[in-house]
Design a protein that fits this description.
Layout: H1 2-5, E1 12-13, H2 14-21, H3 25-33, E2 41-42, E3 48-50, H4 52-66, H5 71-76, H6 84-121, H7 127-138, H8 152-161, H9 164-186, H10 194-211, H11 215-225, H12 232-256, H13 262-265
Antiparallel strand pairs: 1-3, 2-3
Helix pairs in contact: 2-3, 6-7, 9-10, 9-12, 10-12
Length: about 270
């Protein structure tokens, strides 16, 4: 019994090894079970015995773990590295992975701050809108902030009409037409000219595609366009574009002999 308690010179118990490296005994036992760091010897009584060579290996494991390597990586690949070049390659790969994680976390932090701003601006708690905002932030949709101004009917309509690709395509078309309206106005192109009426038709086709023929959605778009709570810079640009758009559309409808807004005015 006394013979088992005495540790041969050059060996240390699991407790001594753990204390020397500032880890827990349970950590060393876990590394042993995982085949990551097995003790050099086992005493007659079944005690794990470690050597200075094991401590060097443990130091390597702890250092690599600190650098973000998983235990599986260390077990299956890193612990077998023999040359400085091998180590350098793996460290470069790990550094690239860390940078990718940092970028991902930075983007997540930015999205959380943007969502936080939207939540504070909304007048009530609405987790359905929060979810839509998150999805649009992940899609890199710069118009995510418009969602807080939509009611449930509008949001349900958008979800049913558009997926990620078609939604982005629609917003690109909208912005291009808004910019074209400003260009035409600045260039002095009359809304009733051929060019102005071609523009009107393209704009109305875009609206028809968005509404899917649902005039109640058209009415909500009109109301949304009159909202005063938008960002001043955005509102100024939209007002400038809409002044030309409305004039062009009025002439376009007059030539067609139709009034799609008639029902809303009744």
């Amino acid at each position: 019994m006394e013979k088992d308690k005495a540790v041969s010179q050059g060996y240390m118990t699991v407790g001594e090894a753990a204390k020397k490296m500032g880890v827990t005994v349970r950590t060393l036992q876990h590394y042993d079970r995982e085949g990551l760091l097995s003790p050099t010897a086992i005493s007659e009584g079944g005690r794990r015995l470690y050597t200075d060579k094991d401590i060097v290996k443990l130091h390597q494991i702890l250092s690599l773990k600190h650098l973000g390597f998983s235990l599986d990586d260390i077990k299956n690949r890193l612990i077998l590295l023999d040359t400085p070049a091998d180590v350098a390659v793996v460290l470069a790969e790990q550094a690239a992975g860390v940078r990718e994680k940092i970028e991902s976390l930075s983007e997540l932090s930015r999205e959380l701050e943007m969502l936080r701003e939207e939540v504070l601006q909304m007048q009530s708690v609405n987790f359905k809108k929060y979810a839509d905002i998150i999805v649009n932030l992940q899609m890199k949709n710069e118009f995510y902030w418009l969602i807080k101004h939509f009611d449930d009917q509008m949001l349900d309509h958008i979800r049913s009409q558009f997926d990620e690709d078609s939604g982005k395509a629609f917003m690109n078309t909208f912005m291009q037409l808004q910019e074209e309206a400003i260009r035409l106005q600045n260039a002095g192109i009359l809304a009733g000219s051929d060019e102005g009426q071609i523009f009107a038709k393209e704009y109305w086709d875009m609206i028809t595609k968005f509404t899917g023929g649902d005039m109640s959605i058209l009415s909500k778009l009109v109301e949304l366009g009159q909202f005063e709570g938008f960002d001043p810079r955005w509102k100024e640009e939209q007002d400038l574009a809409n002044a030309y758009v409305m004039q062009a559309l009025e002439l376009y409808f007059a030539r067609l002999g139709v009034d799609p807004f008639q029902e809303d005015r009744k």
